[in-house]
Design brief:
Elements: H1 2-22, H2 43-47, E1 53-57, H3 75-84, E2 88-91, H4 97-100, H5 113-125, E3 128-135, H6 166-184, E4 190-195, H7 220-224, H8 235-253, E5 262-267, H9 273-293, E6 302-305, E7 308-310, H10 324-339, E8 345-354, H11 365-384, E9 389-394, H12 420-426, H13 428-433, H14 435-440
Parallel strand pairs: 1-2, 1-9, 2-3, 3-4, 4-5, 5-6, 6-8, 7-8, 8-9
Helix pairs in contact: 6-8, 9-10, 11-12
Length: about 450
C-alpha cells in the first residue's frame, strides 16, 4: 500500500512539474496577488492527492487580538474552512480539560455546549474531527487540584501545586479520559491523548533508549504518577492504555474495525534533535511493550508534530529561526517506526510560521517573502513524505486570530486576503523557482480545476 501510494504521488508530482514547464510565466514586482478569499484556488483540492488539509475552529472570541472573532458563525471564516481546510478540524480550546470541566477540589461541572457546537458544525459540513486534548499539564486545574483560579495568563504556564496522591491522580486521569471519550464516541476521528511531556529544549542530542524518562518535563502529572519500578507504569502508560481500551469499546459499539479511532502523542520543537530522539524512544518503548502484551497491537498510533516554526532574525517576535532540514530529518526519524510496524502515521498538527513582530512594526515585503519561502519549503518536504502523513493542519486562518498574532504566522491577513504564504503553499515549486513571476500570474501555474 505504501509503495503504491508513493508511485501515485510520484506520478502526480511529475504531472505538476510538466504543467509548470508548459505554463506561461508572467512578470511583475512581487507581492501577494489582490484576490478575495472566494477567488482563490482550493488548498484542499491541491493537496488532496497527498494528504488532507485541516485547521482549528473556535466558538468564542478568545481575545488574542482586538480583531479576533469566533470562526463558527462567521460566514467568511466558515467558507475558508470548507474551501481550504476541509479534511480535519480541531477545537482550539473547547476540548481541553478546563474547557470541558471546571472542577476544583471543591466543585465540579461538566460543560459540553461549545464542544458539541463544533461537532455539529463538523458533521453538517463534512469535516473529520481530531480531539485536542485528553491529558495535558496545562489548562487542567481541577485534575491538578488548584483550589482557585490561577493568575492572568496561567493557561500557558506550568502550574506547580503539590501533586495529588498517586492513586487519586490515576483515578482522575482515567475518569477524565473515559468520560470525555465516551461523550463524543464514534463521532471523533482521533484523540490526542498526551501533549507536551518533554521540555522545549535542554535535551541532549544523544539521548539513549534507556534514559528518555530523564528528559521528561517536571509536570504535575509526572510528579504525581512517576514510573513505578515494580510495574513499569507511569502517567504515560495509564493515559494511553485507558484511551486504547475506551477507543476499542467505541469502535466495537459502532460496528467498525478495532483501531479505527487513532491515538496521538503530540509535542512541539520536534525539529530539535534531542527532543526528536526523546519522543522516538518513548513511543518505541510504549509500543513495543504494548505489542508484547497484546498480540502485536500498538498503543500510540500517531506522532503529532505541532510545527510551530519561526523564520527568526533580529527584531522578530521569535528570534530563533528553524532549519527546515531538521524538519525533514524528524519526519524521516519517526518514519522508521512506521517501517518497523511501531507507528501508523505522522501528522502535522499545529502548523504556523512566525516572522517579524507587529508589536514593533508592520510586516515588511521582505519578511513576508521569507515566511512564504519557509512555507513553500515545508510543503515540499510534506509532499516528499506524503506516504506517512495522516494530515497537515494549520493552527488558525488569519493572523489576528493566532495565539502568536504578533509574529504574523498564518496564511491570511486580518482582512482575509491571502498572503504570499498562501500562494507558496498553493504551489511551492513555482513559488521557489520564480516568486515574482508566479505571484504576477498564479493562474498560469495552478490547474484551472483547483479554482472552481
Amino acid at each position: 500500500m505504501k509503495v503504491m501510494k508513493k508511485l501515485v504521488l510520484a506520478a502526480v508530482a511529475a504531472a505538476v512539474v510538466a504543467a509548470l514547464v508548459l505554463a506561461a510565466c508572467g512578470t511583475g514586482g512581487g507581492g501577494a496577488p489582490a484576490a478575495g478569499a472566494g477567488e482563490l484556488p482550493s488548498l484542499s483540492a491541491i493537496w488532496g492527492p497527498y494528504f488532507p488539509m485541516g485547521n482549528i475552529v473556535s466558538t468564542v472570541d478568545y481575545g488574542w487580538r482586538p480583531a479576533r472573532v469566533a470562526d463558527i458563525g462567521n460566514p467568511r471564516l466558515e467558507h475558508i474552512l470548507r474551501r481550504h481546510f476541509s479534511g480535519f478540524i480541531t477545537a482550539e480550546d473547547e476540548m481541553k480539560p478546563d474547557a470541558l470541566n471546571s472542577h476544583t477540589h471543591q466543585t465540579q461541572q461538566w460543560r459540553w455546549d461549545r464542544a458539541n457546537t463544533i461537532m455539529n458544525f463538523a458533521e453538517n459540513n463534512g469535516f473529520r474531527v481530531h480531539g485536542h486534548v485528553l491529558a495535558w499539564h496545562s489548562q487542567s486545574p481541577w485534575i491538578l487540584n488548584l483550589a482557585s483560579a490561577p493568575p492572568s495568563g496561567w493557561r500557558y504556564i506550568e502550574p506547580t501545586p503539590p501533586p495529588r496522591p498517586r492513586q487519586e491522580a490515576i483515578n482522575n486521569l482515567v475518569n477524565h479520559i473515559e468520560i470525555v471519550m465516551r461523550h463524543f464516541g464514534p463521532r471523533m476521528d482521533s484523540w490526542e491523548v498526551l501533549n507536551e511531556i518533554f521540555p522545549s529544549g535542554g535535551i541532549g542530542g544523544g539521548v539513549a533508549a534507556g534514559n528518555w524518562r530523564g528528559s521528561l518535563r517536571n509536570t504535575p502529572w509526572n510528579r504525581a504518577i512517576p514510573l513505578d519500578p515494580a510495574t513499569g507504569n507511569c502517567h504515560i502508560w495509564y493515559a494511553f492504555t485507558t484511551a486504547r481500551r475506551v477507543a476499542d469499546e467505541i469502535d466495537v459499539a459502532a460496528g467498525r474495525p478495532v483501531g479505527t479511532m487513532l491515538l496521538y502523542y503530540n509535542d512541539y520543537n520536534e525539529d530539535n534533535a534531542g527532543k526528536r530522539n526523546a519522543i522516538y524512544f518513548m513511543v518505541r518503548e510504549m509500543n513495543e511493550r504494548f505489542a508484547r502484551e497484546n498480540n502485536g497491537r500498538i498503543l500510540i498510533d500517531v506522532i503529532g508534530m505541532q510545527s510551530h516554526y519561526h523564520v527568526g532574525g533580529a527584531g522578530a517576535a521569535w528570534t530563533h529561526g528553524v532549519n527546515v532540514n531538521n524538519v525533514r530529518q524528524t519526519i524521516q526519524r519517526f518514519s522508521t517506526l512506521i517501517d518497523e510496524g511501531l507507528l501508523r502515521y505522522i501528522s502535522v498538527t499545529e502548523l504556523d510560521v512566525t516572522v517579524g513582530n507587529t508589536d514593533i512594526s508592520p510586516l515588511t515585503p521582505q519578511q513576508e517573502r521569507m515566511q512564504a519561502t519557509m512555507y513553500a519549503q515545508l510543503f515540499q518536504i510534506y509532499r516528499d513524505h506524503a506516504d506517512v502523513l495522516r494530515r497537515v493542519s494549520v493552527w488558525g486562518i488569519h493572523d489576528p486570530a493566532s495565539w502568536r498574532a504578533r509574529g504574523n504566522p498564518l496564511l491570511f491577513n486580518g482582512d482575509l486576503t491571502p498572503k504570499e504564504a498562501f500562494w507558496a503553499v498553493a504551489n511551492p515549486d513555482a513559488f521557489l523557482a520564480d516568486p515574482d513571476a508566479f505571484l504576477a500570474n498564479p493562474r498560469a501555474f495552478i490547474d484551472a480545476r483547483y479554482w472552481q
